[in-house]
C-alpha cells in the first residue's frame, strides 16, 4: 500500500478506515485536507469516531458524546487507529481511541486521543429544545464563499461555506460566526461527518483581528443530539469568554428543521 493517496472531495472517504485487527484500523490520511502542518482537526475527530463505531458490535448504540485532544499534527500518510473498549454496560459503551503515527525517529507517537460514548435510545418523554437555530437567508440565496488556499486552509476547498455576518480579519467587535456549511461530496452521513462540519468554521476570535494570527484548538468536546437528513446545515459559533490567551468557544450545528444536531465546546489558544 502506498504511503499517500490523492486528495478527495468525499469527506466520508477521507475518514475511511481499514480493519487490521479486532480493535485496530489503518487510516490512509489523505492529502488535500491540511490546516497548517497537519490535516484539519475535524477530520481527526471524524476518524476517531468512525473507529469507535466500527469497534462497537451493537448497531443500536449510536455515538452520543466525544472528548478529543489533538496532541500533535496528524499528517497525510499512514496512521494506526486503535479503539480500546473501556466498558460495555447494558446500554452504554465507552471507548478510548488513539491515532498513532511514526515520529521522525521511527517510533510510534500518539497524535490524537478521544473518549467516545455510544448508547441506545432512552425514553423520550422529556424531549425539548430551548435553543433556537440562527435566522438565516435561504441556503440557495447565498453564494458559496470562495475559500481555499492560499487565503484559507487547504481543507476548505472540499466544503461549501455560505457565511452570514463577520468574516475572519474583518476587525469586528463581537467574536461570533453564523452561516451554512455542507459537504456536497460526502458519500455517507452520520456522526463522523456531522462532527467534522461543526469543526470546519474558523475560530470566532479571527473576526476580531485585522490580519492573520495563529490560533490552535486544544480540546474538543461534543454531544450529538439528533439524527438529521443530509445537509446543508446551519452553523453558529461564539466565544463565551477569553482570558489569559485561552478562549472557550461554543459551536452549534442545526438541521433544516432547526433541530440542534451537535453542541460543541472547544478550548482555543492564542499562540502569539
Essential attributes:
single chain, mainly beta, Porin, twelve-stranded antiparallel sheet, 3 helices, 41% strand, globular
What does this structure look like?
This protein has 272 residues and is mainly β. The protein has two domains: 109 residues, Thiol Ester Dehydrase, Chain A, CATH 3.10.129.10; 132 residues, Acyl-CoA thioesterase, double hotdog domain (Porin, Beta Barrel), CATH 2.40.160. Helix content is 10%, strand content 41%. The protein has a twelve-stranded antiparallel sheet, with helices on one face. Helix 2 packs antiparallel against helix 3. The longest helix has 15 residues. The radius of gyration is 18 Å and the shape is globular.
Query: Helical stretch count?
Result: 3
Shape: globular
The percentage helix is under 10%
Report how far the terminal alpha carbons are from each other. 40 Å
Low-confidence sequence ranges: 1-6
CATH topology of the largest domain: Porin
Query: How many individual domains?
Result: 2
CATH class of the largest domain: Mainly Beta
> From N to C, what is the helix and strand string?
HEEEEHEEEEEEHEEEE
Percent of residues in β-strands: 35-45%
